Amino acid sequence: MAGLVKVITGEMFSGKSQELARLIGESLGQGLEVQVFYPAHAARGSHRDIDQRLSSIRGEGKLTLHPVPGGNAQYIADWTRCTTDVIAIDEAQFFSDDIVPVVKSLRREGKLVLIGGLDQDYLEHPFGRMGDLMCIANDVVKVHTFCASCRQDDAYISHRVTREQDQVVIGDNYIPLCEDCYLLATNGQAIPLFVD
Ligand SMILES: [Zn+2]
User: Phi and psi for 33 in degrees, rounded to 5?
Assistant: First the structure.
């Protein structure tokens, strides 16, 4: 029987890792075997984040964490055990392009595939293969935090507050903004920021 693909996406700080950890905990609670893959090269806060979130539930069931060298998607296929019920992939935007066929074949093998990742980069471009993964998914959930400037609306994007031009810059250089505040900020206007 074919499995299912579920994508959880949104801007940074939107709670994707929390939601992924919740679903993993639910699976472990049902006695399912879970393997979690994340790119080793992007060892930013969110990995520590998911590690910490999972450490509280690690003792409860059959859970294995795999940092993936270079974000090579084939590694997921190579290391997936046939006994595993659930494959969770965090920071999926950093994986190689073949993440799409890898995920499809895991579903065909009957796995539940849970995918977390950023939808857009700081310039509003679809990030990595996230767009394709959303298309092939059975379910897509977009989660949001509040805009860090106006605090009125849901955030829309991770706005980069530093001047690097590369698509991938790891670190605490981002704030979640709604689209209106993002437009003001990218037009060079000073916007108020509320930092907790
Ligand atoms: Zn705003």
Answer: -95, 130
Q: What is the pLDDT of residue 163?
A: 79
Q: Where are the alpha helices (DSSP H) in 92-194?
A: 99-108, 130-136, 179-186
Taking residue 33's Cβ as centre, other Cβ atoms within 10 Å add up to 16
Active site residues: 91
Rounded to the nearest angstrom, the distance between the alpha carbon of 147 and the centre of ligand 1 is 5
pLDDT at 94: 95
What spacing in Å lies between the alpha carbon of 73 and ligand 1's midpoint? 36
List the CATH code of the domain at 4-142: 3.40.50.300
* Mean of per-residue pLDDT scores for the chain: 90
Neighbours of ion ligand 1 (CB under 5 A): 147, 149-150, 178, 181
Instruction: State the distance from the centre of ligand 1 to the C-alpha of 187, rounded, in angstroms.
Output: 14
List of the chain residues with pLDDT < 70:
42-53, 55-61, 195-196
Rounded to 5°, angle at Cα 129 from 133 and 169 = 135
Q: How far is CA 1 from each of CA 30, 86, 107, rounded to the nearest angstrom? A: 19, 14, 9
- Evaluate whether 3 touches 106 at the Cβ level (below 8 Å): yes
Compute, in angstroms, the gap from residue 151 CA to the centroid of ligand 1: 6
